[in-house]
Amino acid sequence: MTQPLHAVDQEMVNSGKWTLLIIDDDAPTRQVLAQSLETLGDFSVYEAANGVDGLAQFQKLGNVDGVLVDINMPGMDGIEFVSRIKDLDNSVVAIVITGYPSMDVIIEAMRAGAADFLSKPFKFDQLRLAMERLTRERRILLDNRLLSQEVVAKKALEELNQKLEKKIREQTVLFTISDTLSRIKNTQELYQQVVTMAAALTETKEAKFWVVNHDTKTLMLAAALNAFQECERQIALDANGLPPVQVVQEGIPILVDSASRKNSCSDAFQLLVPLFIRDEVFGVLSVASPVHDRNFEEGIFLLHLLAEKASLTIENLLLYESVIQNLHATLKALVRSLEAKDPYTKEHSHRVTEVAVSIATKMGCSAEEMDSLRFAGPLHDIGKIGISDQILMKPGKLTKDEYEIIKAHPVIGAEIVGHLGLLPVEKAIIRHHHERWDGRGYPDGLRQGEIPRLSRILAVADTFDAMTSCRPYRKALSVEKAEQEIEKNGGSQFDPEVVEAFISYLNEKR
User: Fold this and answer.
1) CA distances from residue 423 to 71, 333, 373, 392 in whole angstroms, order as listed
2) Structure pTM?
3) How many CB atoms lie within 10 A of CB 253?
4) Which of 58, 377, 462, 481 could form a disulfide with 353 if both were Cys (CB 3.0 to 4.6 A apart)?
5) Domains and CATH numbers, the chain
6) Distance between CA 379 and CA 334 in Å, rounded?
7) What does residue 310 show for φ and ψ, rounded to 5 degrees?
8) pLDDT tens digit string along 389-425?
9) pLDDT digits (tens, 9 = 90+) for 300-330
10) What beta strand segments (E) does 193-328 contain?
């Protein structure tokens, strides 16, 4: 009866006594490795806390079958340690351990003589497979040394290293793709990143990504790296014979010589792969090169990895963007219904947001901060939806009690958006846009740096628009008069730095 491969390997492990040396400056890691190895087979395990001690231990033991060594250690690192023991005994099998599986570092370790690697945190099955490979390779090396068949041993090692290098490259590519895509926040950024990564993975200079538009029955060019022809911007799905259309129709990768096709826009070799969402072709990714080479053979595999990961990310982003758009539209409708009651405040939130974004630009705010302002700015007065119209539209001066009710609108607004998934920074903009620099604002009486910076920016923009808009109880002030009032209150009501940026914005606008 034929046994599974791992069972055969396990019998090989258990058939003899193997001496292993663990070198790692992290004691818990050494302990976990030692305990795990005890359950795997007949191993004699020794430990060292650094490369110098490990080298001394290695020489003292005299006969070591394998070493597991951490790459990053003080003093002598793992790569130098592997190189030194290989000089002493090139039949010892070395496995490097790393928490950051960088392609460059792993290849450097392999060149020093490492035969395998383990990524932290490792799983028990990964360690078991590594030990199977270690014992198998050790037997090969010992047999070849005894038989003086160094040529055979070198060939076997080269094959193992090639397989390991391929495996490392695949895992590194997969890690890089996943890590890069996880940081992308919108579909347009994703499309551009996909073509950039596609060209890098296949070592080509041109890449394109089309999205299927079922409404117009076309392929729309969503992103491109370097040159593309005008005829590639929009391709009809009934244009049979064109490579992107063929990929949509057949749902499989294709490699074509575009120069040989009379109806092709391109004059280069193209590799095209489909991107699927829920078993339907969503888009087509293409890389192109003036010459056909073996990069395209491996490119099919690499682009398949990229397409698979990108498809999942695209689906999640599209769902997220749809939810956010619906949420924003709902909130804006609430704001419009609020402003529709009072013609004096019509478009107030929109104007305030524009001024706030201009001030934030002057102050060098990040792209994320600008996005938060654009999202929360139009909603800053949404809490007034819970205030009586009699108070909101009162033509005369408010009573003390009425003013206290008005002061509740930032809290009401924060509560409304707090249940709808807004970011904490966006919720804070709405809650604190009536705080004062001197601490006499509301609702929390925050002062100076305690007030979120975006709230301080919105406070100036809000006050400026309120002063330059007609109200039931007063006429609008001129821009110059409003500017003077805001400048005068810098350091008391407003953040002086925000006031300075606001005046700079007005001067530039004039």
Assistant:
1) 40, 20, 11, 28
2) 0.45
3) 18
4) 377
5) 5-179 (3.40.50.2300), 187-320 (3.30.450.40), 341-509 (1.10.3210.10)
6) 9
7) -65, -35
8) 788 777 778 888 888 888 888 998 888 887 766 788 9
9) 777 777 777 777 777 777 776 676 677 777 7
10) 206-213, 218-225, 234-236, 254-257, 269-277, 280-289
